[in-house]
Amino acid sequence: MPNREDFAPAEVEVAYDIAKQVYEERMSKKDARNDLVARLRTKPGTVDAFFAGYKAMRTGSEYNRALGNPAVECFVNGITRDEGQAGRALALRAVMLNIEYYERSNKAAEGRRVFRRDQRALHARLVSETAELPPIFPDEVDEHDSVLIEGALRTVLVNQYERNAEARRKSIAHYGCKCFVCGFDFEQRYGALGRGFIHVHHMLDIASIGAEYEVDPIKDLRPVCPNCHAMLHSERPAMDIDRLRTLIS
Question: Can you say whether the dihedral through the CA atoms of 121, 165, 94, 238 is positive or negative?
């Protein structure tokens, strides 16, 4: 039996539904594997990749099995439909961890680093299609199309601080997509893949404020690259943005 990868959208949806049942222990893995092998006309290893990918996306953890882009997109959107934006954030985190795993593990040809361009492009598109970025930093964990009020503590899997998509958009419209600290421009470096990609840093540490307040997109927010964002949050409360600019100048 061939190890198929050219699954039709309806077949991927079937794989998603059964992987979900296995994860939620509504179906045994053995029965699910036999069912999918027959229905998809593929090998058990491919079916196990569906199960591993779904589990990792539900928990935001690394998985080391290969999934085709159509399956990745179906699973991320399915988890969003079932679990909401918090679930989507975990799924996208797992997808990026899988990309980084393969880039680390595969040997570079002629000394050049392996770069999974197609997979990264898909990940970037899926991120752009959602109202939030993965909740890695306390400054950028959740965004909502609402009034410009930020900082209300809520619980979604873990404690998160509400972010505001409109405030983020206005800050980027004012300052542009270059990092306010180091000047890195994702579009200049990666072309269309990096167009519009940037994190947004809050000048006031919301995690320390712990109360709602009205945000000023120009005064309170600055676009920063993920590296500088991580460095700003290497301290608590977050490092002053001008101090980091001085450190790297």
Answer: positive
Closest CA to 121 of 183, 64, 195: 195
Alpha helices in 106-182 (DSSP H): 117-128, 165-175
In terms of DSSP H, where are the helices of 8-68? 9-23, 29-40, 44-59
Which pTM does this prediction carry? Answer: 0.53
How does DSSP classify residue 224? E
Determine the pLDDT at residue 235.
Answer: 80
Residue at token pair 């079932």: 82
**What's the per-residue H, E or C state across 65-92?**
CCCCHHHHHHHHHHHHHHHHHHHHHHHH
Residue 237: is the preceding peptide bond cis (ω within 30°)?
A: yes
Q: Which residues contact 155 (CB under 8 A, 6 or more apart)?
A: none
Phi, psi of 198 (to 5 degrees): -170, 150
Per-residue pLDDT reduced to its tens digit, 125-146 = 888 776 444 334 444 443 333 3
Look at residue 222 and give its three-state secondary structure.
strand
Kind plus residue range of the DSSP H or E element containing 102: helix 69-105
Is residue 128 packed enough to be buried (19+ CB in 10 Å), middle (13-18) or exposed (0-12)?
A: exposed
Chain centroid to CA 16: 19
* Residue 105 to residues 101, 102, 122, 130, 222, Cα–Cα distance (Å): 6, 5, 20, 29, 35
Confirm if 198 and 225 have CB atoms less than 8 A apart.
Answer: yes
Query: What percent of the chain has a predicted confidence (pLDDT) above 70?
Result: 76
